[in-house]
Write a structure and sequence with these properties.
CATH architecture of the largest domain in chain A: 3-Layer(aba) Sandwich
CATH superfamily of the largest domain in chain A: Nucleotide-binding domain of ferredoxin-NADP reductase (FNR) module
Largest sheet of chain B: 5 strands, parallel
Order of helices and strands of chain A: EEHEEEHEHEHEHEEHEHEEEHEH
Structural class of chain B: alpha/beta
Structural class of chain A: alpha/beta
CATH topology of the largest domain in chain A: Rossmann fold
Order of helices and strands of chain B: EHEHEHEHEH
Shape of chain A: globular
Strand content of chain B: 15-25%
Distance between the termini of chain A: 40 Å
Number of strands of chain A: 15
Radius of gyration of chain B: 14 Å
Strand order of the largest sheet of chain B: 2-1-3-4-5
Helix content of chain A: 10-25%
Largest sheet of chain A: 7 strands, mixed
Distance between the termini of chain B: 24 Å
Number of helices of chain A: 9
Oligomer: heterodimer
Number of helices of chain B: 5
Helix content of chain B: 25-40%
Shape of chain B: globular
Radius of gyration of chain A: 18 Å
Strand order of the largest sheet of chain A: 10-9-8-7-11-12-15
């Protein structure tokens, strides 16, 4: 019988320091056939294990439209993430997945998008952004609003420039008050405030948001307030609480649903229907 | 010489709530002014420079009180409310009955920059005590 908890062996190909406590890991599977066949959706996640330490779920920050390797962006927060941060290029790790539902690309096609991210919450959105940029003709315009505590906490700094220069993309960067430096040319303010200021029209648009739960709450309030978005037009991810990725451990259930199996991507309407308090 | 009455501005769109707060606080010798919207409230902050602001959350939009508090507490050099950022804010809200969100200054940090946060309904004695506490700590700081 197949062991569903058994990870596939992968090799760390590159480590990119993003901020003082966030790194992006580029990985390839040792099994070339698996590497070739491995596909996923933006918004899905994998279980990343460091042998002898443990495993934890992380969203895929890369896009399936750019095959050859997978990428995870990881913030140092505890035992497993510390061990991941201690990894070096060519180290062997375990990966199982992909898990979860991912972003509903079929429903996003033909729509305008506004992607609202905070801190490391840009990681799952990056997967979606790369996907949309690689299939530009299938989507409308894209507004990206991204913020972090300070300029040094912004992830993917090189790519932010590339996205900014992409046709059909409007990019607005912000840092929290006090987080700006002398060179900063973006906005200064909390992400929901900047979102209201930019105020992308809800016409034929879907808002996708990912970031700290506090930010998400205030983004949902802004979007459904004076901005006029309906709860069905708003998508978010609930990655917290997930553990096994298989709906077995019961750590992430809300009523009858399991975030790791039925999510982590939900519309705000779905969350309201679940009676989730957050 | 009689002690100067402390000025309290109530930004609240529910007339009954305004009346309740006025009656309770005027009985304790506070001077109470009111504004029915965030926009009016911000104007009155500049006109009156109150000693305390009692702020509702659900005004023109569900979260308007939050954005108003953030504006009032902004210490940005270009903020037009910078000189009023020291005024304590007591937030009174029933948002927990209208949305699935729970808010608290302890967990929400800079998103909810108020000195005190009370879920409605509020008892007259509790209201007076909170107002007294905020005004006392303002005087001491």
């Amino acid at each position: 019988m197949e062991n569903i908890y058994l990870p596939h062996s992968a090799i760390v190909q590159e480590i990119i320091p993003e901020t003082p406590d966030i790194k992006t890991f580029k990985l390839t599977f040792e099994d070339e056939g698996l590497q070739k066949d491995f596909t996923y959706l933006p918004g899905q996640f994998v279980e990343f294990s460091v042998y002898g330490v443990g495993e934890a779920p992380f969203c895929l920050a890369s896009s399936p439209t750019r095959p050859g390797q997978i990428e995870c962006t990881i913030k140092k927060m505890g035992k497993v993430t510390q061990a991941i941060h201690d990894l070096e290029v060519e180290d062997q790790v375990g990966i199982r997945g992909p898990y979860g539902n991912g972003f509903p690309l079929k429903e996003l096609r033909g729509r305008n998008l506004v992607l609202v991210g905070g801190g490391i919450g840009l990681a799952p959105l990056r997967s979606l952004i790369q996907n949309v940029l690689d299939q530009k003709d299938e989507y409308g315009d894209m507004v990206i609003i991204y913020g972090a505590k300070s300029t040094e906490d912004l992830v993917y700094q090189k790519e932010l420039q590339e996205w900014q220069n992409s046709p059909g993309v409007k990019m607005v960067l912000t840092v929290d008050p006090g987080g700006e430096d002398q060179k900063w040319q973006g906005e200064v303010g909390l992400v929901p405030t900047v979102l209201e200021k930019v105020n992308p029209s809800p016409d034929n648009r879907v808002l996708v948001t990912c970031g700290p739960p506090i930010m998400i709450r205030y983004v949902l309030l802004s979007a459904t307030g004076k901005m006029g978005y309906q709860p069905e037009q708003i998508i978010t991810t609930l990655e917290m609480k997930m553990k096994c990725g298989l709906g077995k451990c019961g750590r992430c259930n809300i009523g009858k649903i399991y975030i790791c199996q039925d999510g982590p991507v939900f519309t705000y309407q779905q969350l309201k229907d679940l009676g989730t308090e957050f | 010489m009689a002690k100067k009455k402390e000025k309290i501005l109530v930004i609240e769109d529910d007339e009954q709530m305004v009346e309740f707060v006025k009656r309770v606080l005027e009985a304790h010798s506070y001077q109470v002014h009111s504004a029915p919207s965030a926009e009016e409230g911000l104007k009155k902050v500049k006109e009156l420079s109150p000693d305390l602001i009692i702020l509702d959350v659900m005004l023109e939009t569900k979260g308007e009180g939050f954005w108003t508090a953030q504006k009032l507490k902004s210490t940005e050099a270009q903020s037009e409310y910078r000189e009023y950022s020291h005024i304590p804010i007591l937030m009174l809200t029933a948002i927990h009955t209208q949305t699935e969100f729970r808010f608290s200054p302890e967990t929400d940090g800079e998103y909810l920059p108020v000195e005190d946060f009370v879920e409605k309904p509020v008892e007259p004695g509790e209201l007076v005590q909170k107002v007294k506490n905020l005004l006392t700590s303002k005087t001491q700081s």
